Amino acid sequence: MHKVLQSLQLSLLNVGYAHLDKHWNYDNVVSPFTRMYYISKGSAKVYHNDQTFDLKPGYMYLIPSFTYSRYKCDEYHEQYYISFFEEIKNGLSIFNLKSFVYELKAKDTDIAYFKRLLEINPNRALVNDDPEVYDNRPTLQTFKKKNEKLSSAFYLETNGLLRILLSKFIKDHNRLVIKNTTRNNLSQVLSHISENLDKELTINELASYCHLSTDYFSRIFKQKFGMRPNKYIQSKRVERAQLLLLTTDNSLKQIAEKVGLENLSYFSRVFKSFTGKTPGNFRKEELNV
Fold first, then answer.
1. Fewer Cβ neighbours under 10 Å: the N or C end of the chain?
2. Pairing of strands 51-55, 44-48
3. Domains in the chain with CATH codes
């Protein structure tokens, strides 16, 4: 597991301090990056992963990438916020491999980390707190340039602080508890899926990869990840398509091929089943923000 974690890459998008009121009220927020908050004053609510979190002063909160969420503030609250991309080798997400808590009592050192990230990354605040504004392609395309402009010292410090803060939310036990052989480790299957999203993937192939029967493989996969393998594969294809639509100028046909859904009509149906929008409408709405 640690060898996998050694490939973890974290890239800062935004960091800032916000004064928010009842206008902070957004539904159907699904972003291709991870969010982290520290609440300093007031109260609000966030809904995700089938849970309701009462945001309260002195606590930190985590929302994984590509997670449906809803925000609501009835009166007023203030928060430090961080958004960042996370990726393990071959496009895998750490949220596939480890279990996380999403609410933690912050220590003085944690608060100092938020403040330090803001200090060494000025001018990275969100201009508008509406997700439909900041989840757009132009914003996402500029983050790499801003990170490259950091000094070597600040770049390394930023990455280290992000790692420390993210590590706070990881549960002590591994999410995957399976037989101790490489081929029976489902994390290897997730990596295999991520590497081959542009190809045909069958349950028989994945089960064989683990030296398991198809039925048993499907059962333990659902037990570990909450969905059948086919649905998981489709969800990963749609997630990658969303990111490509936001961050590249690739045509819909090129993106469909890159995510293993070469038939444009089928690609559109699958994409809409997960997002409620066709790929073309998704890109158009984001670009016209």
1. N
2. antiparallel
3. 2-173 (2.60.120.10), 182-287 (1.10.10.60)
